[in-house]
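[recover] target loaded
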């Protein structure tokens, strides 16, 4: 014998020799051990059992439910979701009258989702999304667009669903024709641009998006969205910072020519004209590739330094030359030579070599101006061929070898010494002649001698406090006689 107790939420079936004998409800039972007892928990609501056990259950204890493909069931008790059923055969206990079953087709709207229902429904069986004000979506079921979704919360049954979501703030979007067919026509506009057309999408009068040739679809849900088209064969629009930020650099060429510059414009590699100082913008497209070259027209300095040259008398020296030039004809300057600075450098260098090779060192040192004039005469015509105005060519430095510099210093020193000697001799002769003439005048006029003595005494008296004269007896006698006579 064995004892069995079944609670209110329990049911049982007695099985003997493979056959269901009796169904047992809540209560206490004493049974022979030869029975097998199959127990169920009715709180679980859905259950499975072998056919032999099902045969022993009363028909009013449970309900058999068959859900077709793409159907779902929600079991509620006391209006709370407690079980989720997928397609297939299910058996539900009916012992509690507050238990309900709701069957939904995959295309039916979901009931209000609460936390209990979200926990029950598997993640793969539910598509749930929240669309913001700047979002729109299309529900695709089994690869076929089904409905359009506005902003808000949305939830759908099924494992074969997919959401196509867009942000209308992006302004332009792409979608398959089948998806476009379900979108409301008022939501967007289709814009087709030809090879020479471009467009700018504006929102609140501010440029937001740049469109190249092709088919574009633009969201028009915001009434402040506008589309402005351009013909690239016409003049480019005035560029603002906002417009400049969205137009790709390859689509628009912008050049700034300063007051001291000139701009050269090329279309498809062909020179088309000059650009005056200011800001310029040009459309740049496949049929008219634009390039702008800016030329500085200010006077520029060219320094040719460290040129080792040999004079006619075989003296090697180093010259540093300078030249000042300015582009006078900008197109010629750009088109005549690859680098006008290098061309002028070579022209001055060759002219300097030619001149130095034909003169001696002394002639070069004495005639530096001649070298400058020769360079100007030789280089200026050449510079004009480059479209350049050469204003001046000069010699900045002449550097001699160390031994030659020493020799020149000695020569200069000797020349200066000889010149100084000549000057000294000339001055000595003049001084002697002057002394002779003075002596002759004094000899003829003794009074002048006396005046000269007095002048000398006065000059001496001004420089010293007292004068001591040492005279002999004769001199003293003369002084006494002079005093007596006075």
């Amino acid at each position: 014998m064995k004892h069995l107790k079944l609670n209110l939420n329990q049911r049982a079936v007695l099985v003997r020799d493979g056959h269901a004998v009796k169904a047992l409800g809540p209560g206490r039972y004493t049974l022979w051990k030869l029975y097998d007892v199959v127990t169920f928990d009715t709180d679980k609501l859905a259950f499975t059992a072998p056919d032999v056990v099902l045969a022993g259950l009363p028909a009013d204890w449970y309900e058999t439910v068959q859900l077709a493909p793409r159907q779902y069931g929600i079991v509620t008790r006391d209006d709370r979701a407690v079980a989720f059923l997928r397609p297939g055969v299910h058996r539900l206990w009916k012992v509690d009258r507050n238990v309900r079953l709701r069957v939904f087709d995959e295309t039916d709207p979901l009931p209000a989702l609460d936390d209990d229902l979200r926990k029950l429904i598997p993640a793969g069986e539910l598509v749930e999304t929240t669309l913001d004000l700047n979002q729109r979506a299309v529900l695709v079921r089994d690869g076929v667009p089904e409905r359009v979704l506005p902003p808000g919360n949305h939830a759908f049954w099924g494992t074969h669903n997919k959401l196509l979501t867009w942000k209308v703030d992006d302004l332009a979007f792409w979608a398959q024709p089948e998806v476009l067919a379900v979108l409301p026509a008022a939501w967007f506009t289709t814009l087709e641009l030809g090879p020479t057309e471009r467009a700018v999408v504006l929102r609140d009068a501010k440029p937001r998006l740049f469109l190249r040739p092709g088919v574009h679809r633009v969201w028009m849900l915001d009434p402040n969205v506008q589309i402005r088209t351009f013909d690239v064969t016409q003049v480019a629009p005035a560029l603002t910072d906002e417009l400049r930020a969205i137009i790709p650099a390859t689509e628009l060429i912008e050049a700034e020519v300063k007051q001291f510059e000139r701009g050269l414009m090329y279309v498809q590699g062909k020179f088309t004209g000059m650009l005056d100082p200011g800001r310029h913008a040009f459309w740049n497209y496949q049929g008219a590739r634009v390039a702008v070259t800016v030329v500085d027209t200010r006077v520029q300095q060219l320094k040719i330094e460290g040129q080792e040259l040999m004079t006619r008398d075989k003296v090697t020296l180093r010259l540093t030359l300078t030249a000042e030039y300015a582009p006078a004809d900008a197109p010629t300057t750009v088109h005549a030579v690859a680098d006008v600075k290098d061309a002028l450098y070579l022209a001055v260098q060759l002219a300097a070599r030619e001149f130095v090779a034909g003169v001696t060192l002394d002639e070069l040192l004495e005639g530096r101006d001649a070298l400058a004039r020769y360079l100007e005469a030789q280089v200026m015509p050449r510079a004009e061929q480059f479209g350049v105005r050469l204003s001046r060519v000069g010699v900045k430095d002449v550097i001699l070898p160390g031994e030659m510099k020493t020799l020149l210093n000695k020569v200069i020193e000797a020349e200066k010494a000889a010149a100084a000697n000549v000057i000294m001799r000339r001055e000595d002769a003049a001084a002697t002649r002057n002394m002779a003439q003075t002596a002759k005048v004094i000899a003829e006029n003794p009074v002048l001698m006396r005046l000269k003595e007095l002048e000398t005494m006065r000059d001496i008296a001004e420089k010293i406090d007292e004068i001591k004269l040492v005279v002999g007896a004769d001199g003293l006698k003369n002084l006494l006689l002079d005093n007596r006579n006075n």
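[recover] notes: Residues 402-444 form the longest helix (43 residues).
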